[in-house]
Amino acid sequence: MLAMDLRITQYQYDLRLMSTSTKTLMSLYNKNTNVAFALFLDQDTIDMTARLNQNDGKIYLNFKKDDLSSGLDLLRNENPVYLHYVRDGVATLSTPAEPVGVGDE
Known about the structure:
Elements: E1 4-8, E2 10-17, E3 22-30, E4 33-41, E5 50-52, E6 59-64, H1 68-77, E7 81-87, E8 90-94
Parallel strand pairs: 4-6
Antiparallel strand pairs: 1-7, 2-3, 3-4, 5-6, 7-8
């Protein structure tokens, strides 16, 4: 599978109540198309990885629950945001390079 670079233009945040636990999920979109899911799970139950699901074509990203605030901060406050999928096990959410010293005024 070739690497993919996708601009994330929208996201949906879900806190799901399950019978004995909660799951935090972010659906990531590129131009109104759901391209990925970021799941934030308990560290002891997580296989931190990225994988491309061959059945639905979506990228699944597993993060620790501790990474949730960083993920939300990135999506709420940065623009543009990109999902770089390299191969199963390797992916990043990132911004492009910015000049040093640029911040809120």
